[in-house]
Design a protein that fits this description.
Elements lengths: L1 H25 L8 H22 L5 H22 L4 H23 L1
Helix pairs in contact: 1-2, 1-4, 2-3, 3-4
């Protein structure tokens, strides 16, 4: 049960960091160059929210939701890492995404 609670918290933390990152990218002078980062942050935030809800209600689709969330987190982390040298928000987002992906894989494989 502790693993599931940690995963819920990691999903919520990741959702927050993805939203922060997307907003920071949108308001930067390089918003056009950051389009893929913004898109992936949105996808990841949406899947993190869905995953947290599924886990909270112990849905029979938790494993599938966690696997989809882990994939979105990995894609988002990889994109954010490309920009992490010049954008602290991208670095923070990538770190949150990696933690969330790991938690989601653990829950998915435990089910």
């Amino acid at each position: 049960m502790a693993t599931m609670e940690k995963c819920i918290q990691d999903c919520l933390d990741c959702l927050r960091e993805c939203e922060n990152c997307a907003n920071a990218c949108l308001s930067s002078d390089m918003a056009q160059m950051m389009a893929e980062c913004i898109r992936l942050c949105g996808d990841c935030a949406d899947l993190c929210a869905l995953c947290a809800r599924f886990l909270s209600r112990k849905s029979s689709l938790c494993s599938e939701a966690c696997l989809a969330c882990a994939k979105a987190c990995e894609l988002c982390a990889a994109e954010c890492e490309k920009h992490s040298a010049h954008a602290e928000h991208c670095k923070t987002c990538a770190e949150a995404c990696r933690r969330c992906a790991q938690s989601c894989r653990e829950v998915a494989h435990a089910a």
